[in-house]
Amino acid sequence: MFAYIKGSLEEKSTNYVVIDVGGIGYKIFMSNISINEIGELGKIVKVHTYYYVREDNISLYGFLHHDELKMFELLLSVSGIGAKSAISMLSNITPAGFACAIISNNVALLKKIPGIGPKTAQRIILELQDKLKSEEELTKNGEQTEISVVNNTENVSEAIQALQILGYNKKEIDKAFEKIANTDVSVEELIKKGLSILAR
């Protein structure tokens, strides 16, 4: 319903902000990281939004960056994860770090996030890895994408998988990685570089 909201930042609280648009104040729930980053009161801000509707709850969730929104939507697709849990995760881990944890089966890292126990962490990893496998099967059975020379290292291969987990398709990821010349960096750094290009 709302792709984004742009207006004057009127209020900042511990888990939400209020943005004034034409005299209407929109209460938007956000991660602590985004609230700290959004800026000072009175500033004109633009926030990507997710309109969350349940029988007993209608809320707006906001994100400063598109990759945060993608991660939020991804978490909502996992059984047992609601909006509050998803936004809590965004307050404690970056999308790049999250994707890294999924492809490396890092249950210990996800368990450090408040409200996420070992069973939930394992379920998140299992369901999102299954989703990645399904997408890879579709790619194999459908139109093949071109793979550039830069995509031959193990780190790049893992970074591509992580970006697929975050919802980007193989074709646009390969195109983004053609612009990344230096591959002698960590998987998480490659994910961050990829995200910076894909978010444009």
Structural class, please?
Answer: alpha+beta
Strand tally, please? 5
Give the strand content. 15-25%
Name of the CATH first level of the largest domain: Mainly Alpha
**Largest beta sheet: strand ordering:** 1-2-3-5-4
CATH superfamily of the largest domain: 5' to 3' exonuclease, C-terminal subdomain
Explain this structure.
This protein has helices at about 30-35, 65-75, 85-90, 95-105, 105-110, 120-140, 155-165, 170-175, 185-200; strands at about 5-10, 15-20, 25-30, 45-55, 55-65. By secondary structure, it is of the alpha+beta class. Strands 1-2-3-5-4 form a 5-stranded mixed beta barrel. The relative contact order is 0.10. The model is unreliable at about 145-150 (pLDDT under 50).
In short:
The protein is an alpha+beta fold and 200 residues long.
